[in-house]
Specification:
Chain lengths: 174, 224
């Protein structure tokens, strides 16, 4: 039974670790803090998991714990950091240093604007576009209807676009 | 910038990945923790009971009160909110910082031992310092190897203390070497009894073989 628990939690860990780390990293913008918070999320989840009580939607539960831990992190007085472009832990774009510098700079700009959105909008964008969850799965995580979730995703994207274009008016580049 | 470009950039974030080594070590540390305990039928009964209480309006208030007491009471043991773990973590980091500060003080005071007239006491002191630090390092190693999930700040603190400990041990070795060599040179110029002469010779031999503790013990017996 114990082995089964470990195996099940191991699978849950493998399936979610990258997503939760990415989610936390985008919110806190620092590798060390993201590692500490992600570790705390899984420690709490493991404690809950081993009680044997049913967790209906594991993804939703993990993101819920992650959100609470990020809030605790900022409640402890940490200011929203600005990540140096070199500190983004991206895996595939480091082969071409020049291109990678431009991409990282754009991405950091995007991350800053993403953090300016309200939490629910940030979450749906991360889940839908980065993690590849369907609107149905996101609806279950948010406890909303699929239609309402699609509207939230659409609004979140529009709001992000508005923030990006306000900062960098298209006329500057045309 | 249109929405397609933003979506494209957002998708690039999916390349953000944790350090593989960290990912694997966290999993190992988590799963090495104490074996899971399945919720017993009794526990389930308590939760079902509480749920039933909430379903009856008259009992809802009493149910809430009971639930509050249970949650608060058990939080001290189970740490539902993680409050104590965070506090423990902070306390541990502070303790490690204090230890590091104390090691620096010890390191500074080692210089004073070189010039003290009480050579025996100075040598004993160096042995005590080395043995205490080595014990502390063993405790730190056990802590690092334990299945507990230590935060990055605690691990960094342990690393700093270990580094400071190694520096103090190296400096203590150097101070011991200087005191002992000075001591041998001084004793060789004195007229010693045959027994003390033998002790001095044995002490020097032990020192040359790297057995500093034995050399110190033999030197401390000279003249007694």
């Amino acid at each position: 039974m114990a082995k089964n628990y470990k195996k099940q939690f191991g699978c849950l860990y493998d399936k979610h670790i990258e997503k939760i780390y990415r989610y936390v990293f985008l919110k806190v913008g620092a590798k060390e803090a993201a590692e500490d918070i992600t570790a705390e999320v899984f420690v709490k989840s493991w404690k809950k998991f081993k009680t044997g009580l049913e967790i209906k939607n594991c993804s939703a539960y993990l993101y819920q714990v992650a959100r609470a831990e990020v809030a605790n992190h900022y409640r402890s007085g940490v200011k929203m950091p600005t990540v140096g472009v070199d500190n983004l832990p991206l895996v595939d774009i480091n082969d071409n240093p020049e291109a990678s510098q431009i991409i990282k700079s754009d991405l950091e700009n995007l991350r800053t604007h993403l953090n300016e959105l309200k939490d629910e909008h940030q979450d749906v964008l991360i889940w839908y576009y980065l993690d590849g969850y369907s609107s149905k799965e996101i609806a279950q995580m948010l406890d909303k209807t699929e239609g309402a979730t699609r509207v939230i995703i659409s609004r979140a994207l529009a709001e992000l676009r508005e923030k990006m274009t306000k900062k960098w008016p298209e006329t500057l580049f045309s | 910038m249109d929405e397609k470009q933003i979506i494209q950039q957002l998708k690039t974030f999916s390349q953000i990945q944790p350090d593989k080594g960290w990912e694997i070590s966290l999993k190992q540390r988590l799963l090495a923790q104490d074996l899971p305990v399945e919720a017993t039928e009794k526990t389930r009964f308590i939760f079902t009971g509480l749920a039933n209480m909430f379903s009856q309006p008259r009992m809802a208030f009493a149910g809430l009160a009971v639930l509050g007491v249970v949650v608060l009471g058990t939080s001290f043991y189970f740490d539902w909110f993680g409050l104590f773990q965070n506090q423990q973590s902070k306390t541990m980091v502070a303790a490690l910082q204090t230890m590091e500060g104390q090691l620096q003080t010890v390191s500074q005071s080692l210089d004073g031992l070189k010039t003290t007239a009480k050579v025996n006491q100075a040598l004993s002191m160096t042995e005590v310092i080395k043995s205490t630090i080595k014990n502390n390092q063993q405790v730190a190693k056990k802590l690092q190897a334990s299945p507990m999930v230590l935060s990055r700040s605690i691990l960094a603190g342990l690393g700093d203390v270990n580094k400071a400990s190694n520096e103090v041990v190296a400096k203590t070795d150097q101070v011991q070497k200087e005191i002992l060599e000075k001591c041998f040179a001084d004793l060789k110029q004195r007229s010693l009894s045959a027994t003390d002469q033998e002790r001095l010779s044995q002490a020097e031999k032990s020192y040359n073989q790297g057995n500093v503790s034995e050399a110190i013990l033999l030197l401390q017996q000279i003249g007694q």
